[in-house]
Amino acid sequence: MEFQIELEDGRRLTYNTDPCSLTWDDGTRVDLSKFAYRYVDPPEFQKQITFSPDNPVIGKDTPRVLKIQLGLGCNYSCSYCSQGGQKEEASSIRDAEEFDFSWVPGRPEKVELWGGEPLLYWKKIQALVPKIRAAFGDVRISLVTNGTLLTREKVDWLFNTGFSIAISHDGPAQFLRGEDPLKDPELLAVWRYTFEKFGERACINSVITEHNCDLLQLWMWFEERLGTVKLNVEDVVTDYGGGKLSDAGIKKIYESIKTYASSGLVLVFPRLRFSFQQFLETLAISKPLDGANQVCQMDRKDYLAVDLHGNVLTCQNTGAIEHRIGTIDNLQSVKLDTATSYTNRPHCHECLVVHLCYGSCMFLNGDEFKASCRASYWYNRALIEGCIYLLTGCKIKAISGWSPAFAKRVIPIKVAA
Q1: Is 284 part of any domain?
Q2: 191-210, pLDDT tens digit by residue?
Q3: Which of 163, 320, 348, 377 could share a disulfide with 158, CB 3.0–4.6 Å?
Q4: Pairing label, strands 311-313, 324-327
Q5: Beta carbons within 8 Å of 392's beta carbon, 6+ residues apart
Q6: Residue 216: which residues within 8 A CB-CB, separation 6 or more?
Q7: SS3 400
Q8: 374 near 254, Cβ under 8 Å?
Q9: Same domain? 350 vs 314
Q10: For position 104, what pLDDT does the model report?
Q11: Distance CA 269, CA 66 (A)
Q12: pTM (2 decimals)?
């Protein structure tokens, strides 16, 4: 799809999404050297598999990333949780004790332990980690926690066994998740101890909502409570049955993220920096859509999510009752038939932000997908506009080309200060 971009100084750009390119009116490509990128001859891309419930991806290979689902239980009820409503086959501590890794071909680069809230399954973690180390040596191990069940003893054990950890907290928007654990002085002290001990191996993960989209304010919120910590964002809130954003909320997020993207401040946040890098690299290699996976990568054959019963899952955020796609004893027969590729989504190929979004969450459909598509579009459009500003030194006046039906409805909204 081709888009015409008019800059405020009158210059014009053409942006193509397939293959990805950004050129001036005279056909010359926009200089990427400001970010130390250069154009290269396009590599050979493996054709992206188009999949749907009726046309599944078949088979999984040696896992590069192995995600182990410990259980979906959680002590919080976040309004936008991707696991809400998922149905699992509950596992026991004995399942963890009997779980082995002899079925894994090769050695993954990373093993991730997931909940629900993984620290609810502490004894399972303690049973699994020695086996992971015995099977895969010094492989990277990580988990994401809400941090409410951390103690100094657990922090020491996780550190000594080589974990990296991320603590989910939305700063001033934490009320959307539940009670703020940092209001508890004892837990606040444990979190400070965690970040002092782990250093770069620990970070805060915040979901972007309309209540915490001011990135500087978000940064200062944590600085005041925890000191200087690594702060990351987990993209914009996605609608899993309760996180739908209003037009005003989307407008607020779009304007704020565009401002910070244009200033370059987003590069401080690892996930946002990755999005910038992804866009620039896509331009540098003239990436076609045929060479692109889902943004979560779970459609790749070397990304694997399993539970302690040996079920292979759509992803770590799903349960086996509705999202079992195979078993670990027959990886070649795994069928990804519970999700939809962006290549089968209406209009994804025509969308300005396809090379950042890649269809949002692949197991969403219906109204939930529409709401998530809308939020993802404006969030990623803000990043692209900011990146183009930094590349050209000029703000965008207008973008013409196909846009989703909701686009014209959101832009005119005036958000009260």
Answers
A1: no
A2: 999 999 999 999 999 999 99
A3: 163
A4: antiparallel
A5: 7, 11, 13, 30
A6: 260, 265
A7: strand
A8: no
A9: no
A10: 96
A11: 25
A12: 0.92
Fill in the DSSP letter of residue 246. P
In a domain, 141, yes or no: yes
Estimate to the nearest angstrom the gap between the alpha carbon of 322 and the chain centroid: 22
pLDDT at 85 over 80: no
Cα(371)–Cα(367) distance, integer angstroms = 6
Q: What is the number of domains present in the chain?
A: 2
From its phi and psi, is residue 115 left (phi > 0), alpha (psi between -120 and 50) or beta?
Answer: beta
Residues 6+ apart with CB under 8 A from 100: 131, 135
Distance, CA of 63 to CA of 134 (rounded, Å):
17
Helix, strand or coil, per DSSP, at residue 13: strand
pLDDT for the residue numbered 417: 38
Task: Indicate whether 282 belongs to any domain.
Answer: no
Residue 414 pLDDT: 46
262-309 residue pLDDT tens: 999 999 999 999 999 999 999 999 999 888 889 899 999 999 999 999
The domain of 387 spans 2-49+345-410
